[in-house]
Structure formats: C-alpha cells, structure tokens
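Section handout, structural biology tutorial.
Before the tutorial, make sure you can parse a SMILES string by hand: atoms, branches in parentheses, ring closures as digits. In the record below the ligand is zinc ion, and the chain has 306 residues. In the tutorial you will relate the predicted structure tokens back to the input. Do not try to memorize them.
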Amino acid sequence: MDINLFKLCSGLKFLGYLMILLVLAIVAVSYYAVVLLTWGPRLLRGGLSSFFAFFVLLLFHLLLILLSWSYFMVVLRDPGSVPENWRPARDEENFEGDGSYLPHEASGSGSTWPSSNGSEGRPRSGFCIRCQNGKPPRCHHCSVCQRCVLKMDHHCVWVVNCVGACNYKFFLLFLLYTFLETTMDTLVLLPSFIDFFSEAKDHSDSPGKLAVIFVAFVLNLAFALSLLCFLVMHGSLVFSNTTSIEVYEKKKGVRWKYDLGRRKNFEQVFGTKKALWFFPLLSEEDLGKIPALHGLEFPARSDVEV
Ligand SMILES: [Zn+2]
Ligand SMILES: [Zn+2]
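Predicted structure of the complex:
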C-alpha cells in the first residue's frame, strides 16, 4: 500500500484544530481550579488572606490576557510567505554567465539548502520545486502548510501554524507567558493539592472539586517543566540568531553567518523598542528598518571566518 507522507503531514493540520480545543480546555480547568475553587472564595475572607488572594487573581488574569493575546497572534499571523515569482535581488551564484536564472533544487524533500560550494560566507537563495517559486535565504518548505515559510523555525501543532519570521516573537512571548502562568498555577494550587489527600480521606470536599484541583495541578506542573526546557532552548537560539532548523545546518567551529552579536540578534526578533518587548506587537519604525522582521533579507556578518 502506498502511503503519501506529505498527505499525512497535511493531516496534522486537522490535529492542530483539536489542539486549540485542548489549549482552551486546559485554560478552563486551570481557571476553574485557581479562580473559582481556591483563590476566589478567599477574597471574601477578609484581612491578609483577601489581600494575598487579590494579588494572586490579578496576576493570574494579567498573565492570562498576555498569553491569550500572544497565542492568537501566533495562530492568526502569517509566519511569512514568499511573494509570487520571487527572485533574489542580487545573488550571483544563482545566475549563469548569460544572466539567466539557475534554480537550485534542494535534495529530496525540496526543503533543504543546496550546498554546492559549502560557503558559510553569505546568505544564499534557492528554488522550491513544489511551490515553483524562488526561495529566499533561511526559507524552508513546510510539508504541513504545503508552502514555503520565511525564516521557518518549525511547524507548531499547538498553534496550527508555522512559526516563521513574522510570528516568531509572538510565539516566544506565548511560551514565556504560558510558562509564567503554569508555574504560578502550580505554586498557588500546591497547598490545595497537599490538602487533596487529607480531604479525600476525610470526605470533607466534593470528589468533583478535588478531581479538578488534582488535574489542574498535574497539568500545570507538567506544562511548566516542559515549557522551561523550550524557553531555555529558544532563548539560546534567539541570542545566536539561529532557527530550530538551522541548528542542523551550522558547521562546528565556524561562527554562524547571521550571528550579529547578542543584542542585535535579539533586536532582529523583538525589535528595538524596549516598551514593546513584552507585548505581541512590533513598531512601524522597526518594521521599516529591520528587514529580518519581514523574512526576505538578513544581514550577515561581514567578517566571516570561512
Ligand atoms: Zn515551497
Ligand atoms: Zn507549517
């Protein structure tokens, strides 16, 4: 039986829609456990307990707004499409002596870079046979989206979208705020989770309430731990101006051609406006002066050690 792997990949898109429901379900369970079952009722107790509950609930809602905002920005924002009939503005190696365009075809999947001369010196462009279009530097063909994505990092089933040049910042903020929210939920549910065992024994609380607190605590703890690993990984990628795909393309002992220094690498994703670093927004000024935010051109290091 012939199995078309690319068809299977595009099936992941439908799995993604279930993931959105799963994300909403996790948020709903956490909201119910933290706000309605544990900390909401403490607001009415008065004294220090109310004061502390107010801050827990304020922080919970603030993080929830920021993570939802970032989430929908990643889901809805185009990660970066290649303009129709795109051709490199000036890329001598793609042109024959007579000036005609010489399309490169990546081996196998059509989504990896040709490495004819092994040069690490400057950005190179190619051609995607499946899109029948030029392929800017750092662009990759996504088998799930079935199109080329600019500065593609990975296809994320949680956001039913590719993560690329135009939504990477939003993805990172989504990771950050979800990590902070799940860590906070784990900490504020910990006393109730410990009580879970004694209350389950004494039958002092309804089994439904105990089950929700138990599930919310375990889910939040699991997410907080896995998100911490992702955050550390993506943090190091941002500061070295590398995508998850490019990690496998880098050569050992050679400084990465797009590495412009930690500060500039960070600004290539988050922009230069400090006030906007923590929000899923980019200023018009940054969009105008940082070509990397559009995903078609990337400054490379001039002093390359080849
Ligand atoms: Zn393509
Ligand atoms: Zn994709």
